[in-house]
UniProtKB/TrEMBL annotation:
Residues 188-287 form the HTH araC/xylS-type domain. This is Helix-turn-helix domain-containing protein. PROSITE patterns: HTH_ARAC_FAMILY_2 (PS01124). It comes from Metabacillus arenae. Transmembrane segments: none annotated.
Amino acid sequence: MEQPIRKSFTQNRFFPFEIVYKDTKNPQNELPDHFHEWYEIVYVYKGKGTFFIDQSIQFMNEGDLFILPGNVIHYAIPDKENPVTSTAIFFDPLMVSNQKYSNHYSYLQIFDECVNSKNFRYVLNLEQRNNIVKHLDNLYTEITQKKLGYIQAITIILQSMLLYSSRSILQTPKKGEDSENSLPNWFKKVLDHIELNFTNQVVDLVSLSEYAEISPEHLSRVFKKMTGMNVSEYITSKKILLAKERLIHTNDTVETVAKGCGFNSMPHFHRTFRKYFGMTPSNYRKR
């Protein structure tokens, strides 16, 4: 298996923020498949495309806002004739952690809602579009001009944008069913089956093709086209991301975590984890 592709960030890690401003996507320069620990917001100015996000395929259209929590597998497919132009911001959630006087509100509320609903797309009205664009423009101005206090300014603007999102955009109905209905029924069944059983060693290309009653060749071709990954890469990514969460949020031993996530060989688990995160599971937990 090829080493997984992860978004790399060039900004100083002491200031965990990055923006890709008004970038026109095409199949040649879009990152094939990726996940990252930073949170991401994508606003679409114009163009069309599709977005694979954590089991779902969702359309990309003018005025759409995508909310992507960390460690969610996602892959954008721009339209060849009318590619998407968008701005994406990436940030470490610690950047907007609550102060001691704001314990009853989280700036990450909209991300939590998207995780719970497994729907990551909002279709904005004109007022919401103008507000988000203004915030993005201000973020870009601050990070490019780097005037006195620009780090503090970026943090404040980002918090303001997230607060606005919670107050206004979070109340906007999310859209996803139109995209889901464009998928073949067998493909949706495959994604659901993987989600329920990806820690089981028998979930592979052959077993999935038998489950969906299609040929392995057809499944492999469509899966790669829609997700940017082959079946084995996708399943391994799901396993390793689950392992990462359990290392952080449980006291289970590394061996227990590995077995619980479908890794029966500890050397294989260590090699795979190092490929994804650049360190051993034990070191990751300590960090």
